[in-house]
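To assess whether the prediction recovers the assembly geometry, we first specified each molecular entity separately, as shown.
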Amino acid sequence: MILVQQLVLGLLVGGLYGLAAAGLSLVFGVLKVLNVAHGELIMLGGYGAFWLWVLLGFDPLLALPLVVAGALAFGVLLYWGLFAFVVRAHEETRIKNSLLIGFGLALATHALAVRLWTADERSITTTYAGAVLSLGPIAIPLVRLASLVLAFALIGALHLLLQRWRWGRAIRATAEDWEAAALTGIDVRRAYLLAFAIGTGLAGAAGTLVSVGYSISPSIGLEWTLKALIVVVLAGLGSMLGTFVGGLVLGLAEAASAFAFGGPYREVVGLVIFLAVLVARPRGLFAR
Amino acid sequence: MLEVEAVEAAYGPFLALSGVTLRVGPGEIVALLGPNGAGKTTLIRCVTGLLVPRAGRIRFGGAEIVGLLPHAIVERGLAVVPEGRRLFGGMTVEENLDLGAFTPHARAGLGRGRERIYEIFPILRERRRQLAGTLSGGQQQMVAIGRALMAAPRLLILDEPSLGLAPRIVETILGVIGEINRGGVSILLVEQNVQAALGLAHRAYILEAGRVAGEGSGPALLQDPHVRRAYLGPLASLPGSRPPLP
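The predicted structure of the complete assembly is given in tokenized form:
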């Protein structure tokens, strides 16, 4: 029963891994840029929701669209300020340039967050925070269940956006072959900007959900970047739904290994998966 | 329509084009011939905005287009069928075609344009829900041409459209190119298949080692020693190498 309980919790956090990874995957797949500050963007999103709740009394459900909107705008600024220079470079040299910029951004954001908000752990504790859905001996925290559902809904919306929206298709075309996309009349730089902004918006959404069901502090960024990276490697690029499933798989695997080997091994299993996938299926489990 | 004047282009220290001048008039089919490495694709990259030439001028419809981004050049009515087709393999035939009409200018005629492509290539209507990457080479070339036509171009550039295709398909493709031209679209055709290209083109240019080595009408060029050299390729005349293809 403890195992089942653990697996349920693993599945719930896995939804957030999927959401965190979706943004990173979109940016990486389209811009060929690895934004290692993605976790810091999640952290900022979490603080956004936290302060909206503390200062203005906004319920996290209400804060979510506001944080996403703010994150989209912040993503536009970040792109113009930092990443627009990187994508002018050849695709092969983009990764290393983006790593430098990403690490710089991550360190600066972390330091700024400590300075502004201290290193304390915080979380949004609403009146319904403790509500639990009991299925026999299994307890499902309602807030985390809602987070999973919301994460899935966001991924689904993103999937539809990429399939149906004119610019969604342009983003997919740019991801596949940016030169061919440019030659069909797509403004590739705008596709980059949109993909980066959407990726940042997803980070904002993930941060909001993290601050409700879990906790935030200035130092959570690296951990979330790592989880997202593991999921991206696990699921491969190109499918947002696959990325979400990859997140669930990581959540379950962590829970199972924590149960089998003890709590500290929760973090180890992700890295083992990371290595195993890179060795056996470098394009990802779900890549076609 | 298209005027290329003294264009120089380089990849790093390697000079790929050293002063190329050519023009494509309204309603013309112009062939661009030459051996591998002569700079044909580099020239196309310059004209389409993927590569900024080091020197020279490129005018389209009377206006300078050097420095414009590729999508802005497409918007002005210059579409290209790139070498190797470059389809979006993970998308359906119809999605590929629709992306061809991405510019505001072309989007107005999207439905009509798509219908026209399906009339030219009926097989694409049957395959419209199929992923472009799973089509045969000939069908992929049809999608690539269709996608370029969706942009409602005034000038269509085709870079090696017959490469790797069966002779029967090549015939179809060349026939369609003639048909497109009769519909009022100027054509710049880059081809390895010299006989076919000269049979179709009103005029042709020979590009060799980054410069124009010959220019003229089809039959005249077929007799030209430069053409024969370009046609056979520089290696074909060396002892011990493969005999020229018929």
